[in-house]
């Protein structure tokens, strides 16, 4: 599926993601600014913080456990904040819209 990422600056990127890959992987393979993924997806760095568009929030299982704890540490947490390494791309997610925060720190 093709995912759309909108940077904090408003710059939009269309990125191809593979089913089974995480949203963080798709973004970092495309070398998007505004997302880091320092821990490689182990849910231990919170530098993959992103906002899932409201229309898509329910397409993912809710955050739980470590992700919830880690989200307490992100800058500018919102109701739709997620760690994008925990969001697995599935069939039918063409058009998934993710907004990136101003900073990961
Ligand atoms: Fe480290 Fe997501 S990549 S928490």
UniProtKB/TrEMBL annotation:
Keywords assigned by UniProt, alphabetized? 2Fe-2S, Iron, Iron-sulfur, Metal-binding
Output the CDD domains linked to this UniProt entry: fer2 (cd00207)
Q: Which GO terms describe its biological process?
A: P450-containing electron transport chain
Q: What is its cofactor?
A: [2Fe-2S] cluster
The entry lists its GO molecular-function terms as: 2 iron, 2 sulfur cluster binding; electron transfer activity; metal ion binding
Q: Which family does it belong to?
A: Belongs to the adrenodoxin/putidaredoxin family.
In Swiss-Prot or TrEMBL terms, this protein is called: 2Fe-2S iron-sulfur cluster binding domain-containing protein
Q: Which organism is it from?
A: Zoogloea dura
What is the phylogenetic placement of the source species in the record? Bacteria, Pseudomonadati, Pseudomonadota, Betaproteobacteria, Rhodocyclales
